Amino acid sequence: MKSSLKAHISTLASDAFEGRETGTKGEQLACNYIISQFKEIGLEAKGEKKFIQEFPFTEGADFGPSTQLYINARSYKLNTDFFPLQYSGSTIATGYITKAGYGIYAPTLNYNDYEGKQNLGKRIFLLQSSSPDGNTPHGKYGDYDLQQRVEYAKSRGASAVIFINTDTTVDNPKGDFLHKYKASTIPVIFVTGNAAKILKDSVVTNCTVGVEVHKIEKTGHNVIGFLDNHAANTVVIGAHYDHLGFGGEGSLYRGEKAVHNGADDNASGTAALIEIARRLKVSPDKKNNYLFIAFSGEEKGLLGSNYFVKHPTVDLKKMNYMINMDMVGRLKPDEKTLLLNGTGTAAAWKQVIDTLTEGIKIKMSESGVGPSDHTSFYLDSIPVLHFFSGTHSDYHKPSDDEALINYDGEMSIIRIILKTIDRLNDSGKLAFIKTKDDNNEDAPRFKVTLGVIPDYAFDGEGMRIDGVSDGKPASKCGLLKGDVVLQLGEHKVTDMMSYMKALGKFSKGETTKVKVKRGNEVIEKDITF
After folding, report:
1. Across-strand partners of 522?
2. 251 and 394 fall within a common domain
3. 245 near 20, Cβ under 8 Å?
4. Does residue 14 sit within a domain?
5. N or C end: fewer C-beta atoms under 10 angstroms in the chain?
6. What's the pTM?
7. pLDDT tens digits for 457-482?
8. Is 519 exposed, middle or buried (0-12, 13-18, 19+ CB in 10 A)?
């Protein structure tokens, strides 16, 4: 098995595959490789185009010549003086400026920026992108995001909305056309620099705002193979095969453009998927059918798995459970801890897990929601189990290469997965349980980052750092990989949740004390967020 795993990961994580970004040549190469393996194993094609299921997605936007800003007959430059926001419609508006503060109407908070402004007519509204308490989007006005303000401005007669920001403690919004938002029917832009100053301080006799958005549409590819045992139920086994290409959004690397090979994330899971399919194909136990899915688009927001659940190629009602493998190639040799997420989604999970061995410590999390493809299935009421060997300092960097894979550790994880499947074969269809924390009600909102990669496998007191990002607060104050955070300011850190809650108490620019354990020594440093 080790030589097969190495062959798969070496191929998928090679420079020739250019980081396997969804919608690129590298993704297509990886897709073809997985198909060749599924064919060799003898799986039945179960996509919409043989083994392939295509799904559309948006990859940014171009702006046409109608994208314009004129203030008092003077023209301003796109991407220098202004840029459209993702809530914008493609249209042009001309008229007078009406200033309406932050554009917030919040009767439950006894706050109204439109008080005294009646019969506004078709005007261009000038709004602050911050909020009254300066904590957008994490303060008490957090529900009044920019999109909500645009829609309310429309109801008050806005023909266009211009946002500016004079609060230096709050970041400017971004023109994020990578994610899906319902576009408005009016132009919406953000204005900076001298143009913003003129709008704020000078008399504006006329203004023209125009936006012409052309979204860049691309296609991703799931690879789907089926093992039909003529059973009543089907087990889904999945792993995403896409990664970050040459970096971009999601990369934690700050150097020059480089291929992000994603050996652990997630060539390791894809290799495991192929080898598990190979073994189940020859298994004498035929009590379940098996659907093997190599997802794309995971790194862009679970696009492939979300599309599959909404456009299934098999009957979802016959799905027994879903096993997801994401980053299973870097089990720590000195601390063999395997993280299993979703253990609360079916009563059978914990009963089976208690019987697993392989000399690996199992750390369980009940929630069916997490940043990987099992979430899409959980949200469709299917029991899920996510196998994860933990984060590391090479996560989402070009250094996540094949040479760092712990093959003995990955083989142990595969054996655990196969044992799990085997021991559930006589259990019939698992009953789905909705986990109590699926809405993450206890998860805090935080405005700052420490700039570290937490060690999720750490089971001691505190939050152990598994990697430090250059140029971030932790790096600047001298924190190191292996340090265990014990306290932030007056807030004690006992585990991951208490760490996040403590982080949520601080704002950008604030300085506090951080107490960490380094070896046998407890040290304290000043840290500025």
Report:
1. 517
2. yes
3. yes
4. yes
5. N
6. 0.76
7. 676 789 988 778 778 899 999 999 88
8. exposed
pLDDT over 80 (residue 180):
no
Inter-residue contact 189 to 163 (CB < 8 Å): yes
What's the token pair of residue 228? 């039909």
Does one domain contain both 78 and 207?
yes
Whether 47 and 79 map to the same domain: the answer is no
Together in a domain, 169 and 265: no
Neighbours of 337 (CB within 10 A): 17
Contact 490, 519 (CB under 8 A): no
Q: What is the pLDDT of residue 176?
A: 78
Q: How confident is the model at residue 135 (pLDDT cuts 50, 70, 90)?
A: low
Q: Is 54 exposed, middle or buried (0-12, 13-18, 19+ CB in 10 A)?
A: middle
Residue 40: CB partners within 8 Å, gap ≥ 6?
none
Residue 337 in any domain: the answer is no
For 30, residues 6+ apart whose C-beta sits below 8 A from its C-beta are 12, 17, 20, 241, 242, 270
Asked whether residue 344 is domain-assigned, the answer is no
Residue type, 23: G
86 & 199 share domain? yes
3-state secondary structure of 31: helix
124, 107 contact by CB (below 8 A): no
Q: Are residues 84 and 223 in the same domain?
A: no
* Residues 411, 413, 414: CA angle, nearest 5 degrees: 65
Question: Nearest Cα to 251, choosing from 368, 361, 122, 398?
Answer: 398
User: Is 30 within the bounds of a domain?
Assistant: yes
Amino acid at 301: G
Confidence band of 207 (pLDDT split at 50, 70, 90)? very high
Q: What is the CATH number of the domain that holds 165?
A: 3.50.30.30
Domain count, the chain: 3
In 3D space, the residue among 332, 328, 314 whose CA is nearest the CA of residue 224 turns out to be: 314
Are residues 195 and 243 located together in one domain of the fold? no
Do 191 and 223 share a domain, yes or no? no
Burial pattern 77-109, b for ≥16 Cβ within 10 A else e, equals: eeeebbbbbbbbbbbbbebebbbbbbbbbbeee
Residue-range definition of the domain harbouring residue 90: 65-211
Query: How far, in Å, are 62, 188, 200, 443 from residue 197 at the CA level?
Result: 27, 18, 5, 38
Give the integer Cα–Cα distance in Å for 109 and 143. 11
Integer Rg of the chain from CA: 26
